[in-house]
Specification:
383 residues; alpha/beta; two-stranded antiparallel sheet; 14 strands; Esterase/lipase superfamily enzyme; DUF900_hydrolase; AB_hydrolase_fold
């Protein structure tokens, strides 16, 4: 097996001082040797369930406010070598050990939370890394930046909404292609989550053996847009991987952002109904004027979307599921965002998320108006 680290250096050179950050990733995209970036818009050649891991060194640009979509530059991409092995499971262990060990070790020693990020449709590998860097930069816990672990599934890269304004011709089929790719990527996401869980369990065993207090750092999950469809299939695959046992509760918070999922998804275990087993609290951020999801609803003949009006019902759902209406704060800096990117660009939403991560009770979060105390809220525009 190869013992050499694969390392890609982009045109911008080394990261620049305190504006540099490291984004960890797993991806089941196709690896193309000697290409920059090294991952393309199709599956791993061995199948959609096989993933590679690594990290990207990213720099925050000097004045990101002017062009928020270009606020971060990828300086280098490090891909862990894929060791030869007789089975896919053996490759998985050998290929991911170093990355997951480093991630969990840093979380413990540096006392930093972990954010697991699943991107949406119409996203290249580079776009995934840049948006993960935005979460690293903005979703602070106090003054500390989280460690971000992004899973990049092979959505087609592109610009704009990705639906087309009328849902016709190639743009329509591109949407369905991304939807199929997200579904097929569920097993790879589940396998990477299982590996992360393995490391957390090992750390817990070490604590018990040393009679030490357990690690106090938290893991938060964020799924954006069609990433919620991928999450559904990851939950189902993870349950299959652990032979139908109850899923482990590893996430403190799950943030479902502008979810391109059915409005009743949290009601059913064959959709997102398994998520309360894994997360202590689930926060559904939605906007009725989200143009991307309106197009998904109308032109793709999808049911009502979770990211438009929130859960179709709230009574009967787990009591730790909350709806947060972002309609008043969904507009961002460019028409192509389609009021679909507020989770990473609107200061009011970022401020809301930071308070959730800090552990504030839902009724105590600044900037919210309760629509139904304890369950449903609306974020108000600043000022």
């Amino acid at each position: 097996m190869s013992l050499e680290v694969v390392f890609y250096r982009c045109v911008n050179g080394a990261p620049k001082g305190d504006r540099a950050m490291r984004i960890y990733f797993a991806t089941n995209r196709r690896y193309v040797e000697a290409s920059i970036p090294p991952f393309r818009d199709r599956y791993n050649v061995e199948g959609p369930a096989i993933y590679r891991v690594g990290y990207a060194e990213v720099t925050k640009n000097a004045d990101p406010a002017e062009k928020p979509d270009d606020a971060f530059t990828i300086d280098s991409i490090h891909v862990e070598p894929e060791a030869s092995a007789d089975t896919a499971d053996a490759k998985e262990v050998l290929g991911s050990s170093k990355i997951f060990a480093e991630l969990t070790h840093k979380s413990r020693v540096q006392r930093r939370n972990i954010v697991v990020y699943i991107h949406g449709f119409n996203s290249s590998f580079e776009t995934c890394i840049q948006r993960a860097a935005q979460l690293h930069d903005a979703w602070l816990d106090g003054d500390g930046a989280p460690l971000v672990f992004a899973f990049s599934w092979p959505a087609d890269g592109g610009d704009g909404l990705g639906f087309g304004q009328n849902g016709e011709t190639g743009s329509k089929w591109k949407y369905f292609s991304d939807r199929d790719d997200a579904e097929s990527s569920g097993k790879a996401i589940a396998r990477s989550l299982r590996r992360l869980l393995d490391y957390l369990m090992e750390l817990r065993k070490q604590d018990i053996a040393a009679q030490a207090e357990p690690c106090e750092q938290c893991i938060h999950l964020v799924a954006h847009s069609m990433g919620n469809w991928a999450l559904r299939h990851a939950l189902l695959s993870l349950r299959a991987l652990i032979h139908g046992a109850r899923l482990p509760k590893i996430f403190t918070n799950a943030f479902l952002m502008a979810a391109d999922e059915d409005a009743d998804a949290l009601e059913h275990r064959h959709k997102l109904g398994l998520l309360p087993q894994m997360a202590e609290a689930i926060h559904v951020y939605h906007s009725k004027n989200d143009l991307a999801l309106l197009i998904s609803d109308i032109t793709k003949v999808n049911p009502d979307r979770l990211g438009n009006r929130g859960p179709s019902i709230i009574d009967g759902l787990d009591t730790n599921i909350y709806g947060i209406d972002c309609a008043a704060v969904s507009d961002t800096s460019a028409w192509k965002h389609g009021r679909h990117q507020y989770y990473r660009l609107r200061p009011e939403v970022i401020y809301d998320v930071r308070q959730v991560i800090a552990g504030k009770a839902p009724d105590q979060i600044d900037g919210r108006t309760p629509l139904r105390a304890g369950r449903l809220y609306r974020i108000e525009p600043a000022g």
